[in-house]
TrEMBL record:
PROSITE patterns hit by this protein: AA_TRNA_LIGASE_I
Pfam family, one: tRNA-synt_1b
Reactions mediated catalytically: tRNA(Trp) + L-tryptophan + ATP = L-tryptophyl-tRNA(Trp) + AMP + diphosphate + H(+)
UniProt cross-references to InterPro entries, sorted A to Z: aa-tRNA-synth_I_CS, aa-tRNA-synth_Ic, Rossmann-like_a/b/a_fold, Trp-tRNA-ligase, Trp-tRNA-ligase_bac-type, Trp-tRNA_synthetase
Name the record gives this protein: Tryptophan--tRNA ligase, mitochondrial
Subcellular localization(s) per the UniProt record: Mitochondrion matrix
Length: 343
């Protein structure tokens, strides 16, 4: 078939958790083997998106390096995939401006993530409000347009995403259609999603919330660099219920269902198989087995993370090379867009 350009992004949140791993990174790594040899793969550290919430500059810089390290440790090979920093390619912001000039405000105000976040956030009313506290800034409202620019700038055709990003990709498709129609030219391919095979991973402490870096409880998540004893302790303390045995029932037993989901995703086997295997076990026995499965999977990742942490020159070089390669693709397409617009 025609060449694919596969592109996805992740925010620089430091060393990621198993939610990011199962919902994104492990899929990104597999695509390197399942895609055609000539297909392009681009993976962005989307640091401009990170600025939509308050950031400590020093911490952000460290988190960017740590996320890059995690990508490498998860098996993303810089010889096969372009790993790059969004902010180092000014064309992202430039393209976003052009797109923002044809995106109706109504399309953005309909975005579920905006509706939820803007209700949670306090309003920024004066200069004094712009401090370390979270508020709704213009960037938070407009960031789906920057996300569209991230994708369209490379004429990406396939986008690995989690289910929480489907609506934003739909917006990107609408923007691409609108531009193509406006300039009577198929400048942008209409990108398709590649949904991660794994379901959403929920918090270990509250199975109504997704596992997230922003959760104040460290016990709510397993990070890719957790030690075996941390993994054992966090899984031991994970919320369960008082029902006997191991059954998969996401409605009545969401906490156990989440642990089964994690087990199945890590082992890449069907949920039914796990349930069958542990039908005679109690929650404690199942948790012990899950901890072992996680330790087995994450130990090589953690070792690689530790190795890369003491080789920051190499990691910086990976980004530098990736930024150069991404710039070439981006600038060519931005020129074409500027030309069409009469700039
Ligand atoms: P987003 O704000 O789009 O969720 P993040 O940087 O927080 O971006 O997450 C990066 C990737 O990890 C996304 O593809 C997202 O879908 C995935 N992800 C994050 N948390 C989870 C989770 N708890 N379970 C499954 N996937 C997750
Ligand atoms: Na998130």
């Amino acid at each position: 078939g025609p060449l694919k350009l596969i592109l996805s992004g992740i925010q620089p949140t430091g060393i990621p958790h198993i939610g990011n791993f199962l919902g994104a990174l492990s899929n990104w790594a597999s695509l390197q083997h399942t895609a055609n040899v000539n297909d392009n793969l681009l993976y962005a550290i989307v640091d401009l998106h990170a600025l939509t919430v308050p950031q400590d500059p020093r911490q952000l810089r460290k988190n960017k390096l740590d996320m890059t390290i995690a990508l490498l440790a998860c098996g993303i090979d810089p010889k096969r995939s372009i790993i790059f920093e969004q902010s180092k390619i000014p064309a992202h912001s430039e393209c976003a401006w052009i797109l923002s000039c044809i995106t109706p405000v109504g399309w953005l105000s309909r975005m579920t993530q905006w509706k939820v976040k803007s209700q949670q956030n306090k309003k920024i009313q004066s200069v004094e409000d712009i401090d370390s506290t979270s508020g709704s800034c213009l960037g938070l409202f407009a960031y789906p347009v920057l996300q569209a620019a991230d994708i369209l700038l490379y004429k990406a055709t396939h986008i690995p995403i989690g289910e929480d990003n489907i609506q934003h990709l739909e917006l990107t498709r609408d923007i691409a259609l609108k531009i193509n129609k406006l300039y009577k030219k198929d400048i942008f391919p209409i990108p398709q999603s590649i949904l991660a095979p794994a379901k959403r991973v929920m918090s270990l402490r509250d199975s109504s919330k997704k596992m997230s870096k922003s959760d104040p409880s460290e016990l709510s998540r397993i990070n890719l660099d957790d030690t075996p004893s941390e993994i054992i302790s966090k899984i031991k303390k994970a919320t369960t219920d008082s029902i006997k045995g191991i059954t998969y029932d996401p409605v009545e037993r969401p906490a156990i269902a989440n642990l089964i989901t994690i087990y199945a995703a890590i082992k890449e086997v069907a949920i039914e198989e796990i349930v069958k295997e542990y039908s005679n076990s109690n929650a404690q026995q199942f948790k012990e087995a899950l901890a072992q499965v996680l330790i087995e999977k994450l130990t090589p990742v953690r070792n690689e993370i530790e190795k890369l942490k003491i080789d920051s020159d190499y990691v910086q070089q990976v980004l530098k090379d990736g930024n150069e390669k991404a710039s070439l693709l981006a600038n060519k397409n931005l020129d074409e867009l500027y030309n069409l617009c009469g700039l």
